[in-house]
Amino acid sequence: MALLVILLLATFGAISxxxxxxxxxxxxxxxxxxxxxxxxxxxxxxxxxxxxxSPATLHQGMSMDEAVLMQxxxxxxxxxxxxxxSGSSRVAxxxxxxxxxxxxxxxxxxxxxxxxxxxxxxxxxxYFVYSGTKxxxxxxxxxxxMGKVHVISLVSLVYARNRGG
Length: 165
Description:
By secondary structure, this protein is α+β, with helices and mostly antiparallel strands. It is 28% helix and 42% strand. The protein has one domain. It is built from 1 helix and 10 strands; from the N terminus they run αββββββββββ.
């Protein structure tokens, strides 16, 4: 009887560990799918952009910021993370938002932002490094499973045509 109990506990423990790992892999796959879709969309837009701009210039024409502006044939667009909620209900999503020039600054034109990722209840940050015709896109997310925090990132290099700069 004792051997049967030990065998059942071991079996249930193994099955439980399998389901936890499966849930963690599904969470990581969802995060990576969101990142890949966002990178593909931004890469396509960067290749079509007439100009790419960022407010923060570092040195020798290089800029880095958490958002980037691209002038596409129809308008200027800002790509960056939009957060909503607070505390444990805080979510973040990467969006593409149409902008227009007011004075010397670009502001949203009031149209709804196009979502490039699903709302994620995880840390989501975007970083853009731009220099000449090279645009580095970095997306960083955090997921938690089995009591540990895991950081997932995806980096992509896009060659833009950069007619404006």
